[in-house]
Design goal:
Blueprint (H helix, E strand, L loop, with lengths): L18 H11 L14 H8 L19 H8 L9 H8 L1 H10 L7 E4 L2 H5 L7 E5 L13 E2 L2 H15 L3 E5 L5 E8 L5 E2 L3 E3 L14 H6 L10 E2 L6 H17 L4 E9 L5 E7 L13 H8 L4 H16 L3 E3 L2 E3 L2
Antiparallel strand pairs: 1-4, 2-3, 2-4, 5-6, 5-7, 5-9, 7-8, 9-10, 11-12
Length: 336
Amino acid sequence: MTVGQSDRVNDMFAEWDTADTVAAVRDALAERYDVTMIEADEDAYEKLRKIRPFFAFNIAEGLYGPSREGQVPAILEMLRIPYLGSDPLTLGICLVKSRAKEVLGYYGVPTAHHAVVASMDECRGLRVRFPSIVKPLHEGSSKGIYDSCVVRNAGELEREVQTLLATYGEPALVEEFLPGREFTVAMMGNGEGLRLLPVVEIKFDALPAGANPIYSYEAKWIWDTVEKPLDIYECPAPLDQRLRRDIEALCRKTYNVLRCRDWTRIDLRCDASGEPRVIEVNPLPGILPRPEDNSCFPKAARAAGMTYNELINSVLDIAMKRCGVPVRDGRQTVPA
């Protein structure tokens, strides 16, 4: 493997679940329920209106616009169909990274310093601390975050912002680069029942020589393959008592401030002093089923002693109980 300034690839569908993932979720749910598959396309409204399922296991990412993750939940709310996960407002805020930072900052949750850049004129007048990292404002699954996005001078900053504006047609988020350890925390539950799964650490020494210490698109989708998986995760992460306490408190506060529901994955990175800060909130977490897929939420669940099917059905139970919908133990209906 070699590292250099990467060519941008067609990452348009990077956020979407694979056919294997969709089938794995279906099979897990089918252990206890009859499952109807509905594609999150323009026909979804009519199909949902006609079928009117008693509950929706929503994993629809959407395709167009910064509010795309909220499109199916909004339809479900219009039709009064209870569903898994956060509401459209929370999904929209979390996808537009600067809005999430603004809300978190209001409540005193530490994040990296940032600026939003919508044009090259704004970029040329920007005062930032170097190194910085340049990201699309409202993308997930490391879309648009390449090894070259860590910039160390004004020339590199302009190059990356120009590339991002042209490629994605949305503003750039220019963020202070945090040099410390990086973690991701899978969370399940609501209220007093909120549970943190074992913390996952991203091990940057597993990246190719010369790569920047970030979980880039290359690291997630190109260098890490099923045939040759990177040994990039450690779960449970080795944490001293203070850091574990700080991460847990930060994640719980973030989950509640942003009004997440049922499940979420929160990414954190430490600053130069070793203090954790929130870098991203993912209320639609990735759930690739196979261990070799290196998917963080299922990896944390396995470390907690859950199989993939147990994870899927556990979060379904959590959501159904929140909505007051009776759940099933096997094929036996149990009051919520």
